[in-house]
Amino acid sequence: MAREPIQFYNRHTKQLETEKIYKEGWLRFTYENPVGRFFLWAFVKRKFFSWHYGWKMNWRSSARYVLPFVIDYGLEEQQGEFARSVFDFRTFNEFFMRALKREARPIAPGDDTAVFPADGRHLVFPDVDKAGGFYVKGSKFALEDLLGEGHLPEARRELTRKFAGGAMVISRLCPVDYHRFHFAAAGKAGKARLIKGALYSVHPIALRRRIEYLVQNKRMITLVETDAFGTMASIEVGATNVGSIIQTYPEDFSVKKGEEKGLFKFGGSCVITLFEKGRIKFDDDLIAQSEACVETFAKMGDRLGVRAGELRELRTADG
């Protein structure tokens, strides 16, 4: 059977592109082969498997993989964005967690504008309750499970009620991407809450088989009280071979739009951003691609959308 390519729309080039998948053969074997799925259940999804791989990526000898990785995945043109030379990283994990020069990711201006929290391939859903088509038509998960409230009686699902009918962004990071995540809007950030879980892959090859992996994986949830968008939830989702989710922001302090929130150690992963109902209007191109189940590649700091109330006011003023 022919392997279906993973395609995405590149917002910068305005073209549909095919993803070069890291360890594609291993990934497809694990999620598309019955024998591979046994190993997934027995070993791959478990914490020790990812911990061991991440531990190896901290060995000094792993630095030898950096330059071949840069060449194989076409990162040569991006080297000018790196805060350090590729020859200065002592381990592969150091390279993976690399910082960028501040000017490499300009932040879309405007107090009423939200930005993407990470580099990656993104899907947007204006109404999370009606959302279907997470990587394949009809696939969806329950909001209460994402927020870690699925085990609670309905009356106690406070976050689920807060974000019911709200908007959602799924930002998928590939191993080739910049793996630090940032705040989509300014506000006061609370404490990150850990929800323990498995470590399945969050690549479309895996999610096309079972979208619930997103709500079964380890994740961290932070609530941000913003002036422009009300309460916003930033959810970092772990995945296979992600050694750690590290938060670097000052808890219970005001943060700026585009300010660094944290980073992932080695592996693919994703960030999910939730907005309250009626608070944000996503840009039209993002909605169009997402309705077709096509991810849009965009960078951290690129414009995501505007405050919905502000948009209505402008339309009223224009007649």
UniProtKB/TrEMBL annotation:
InterPro entries: PS_Dcarbxylase, PSD-B. Keywords: Decarboxylase, Lipid biosynthesis, Lipid metabolism, Lyase, Phospholipid biosynthesis, Phospholipid metabolism, Pyruvate, Zymogen. GO terms for molecular function: phosphatidylserine decarboxylase activity. It is an enzyme of class 4 (lyase). Its cofactor is pyruvate. It holds the Pfam family PS_Dcarbxylase. Pathway: Lipid metabolism; Phospholipid metabolism; phosphatidylethanolamine biosynthesis. This is phosphatidylserine decarboxylase. The gene is psd.
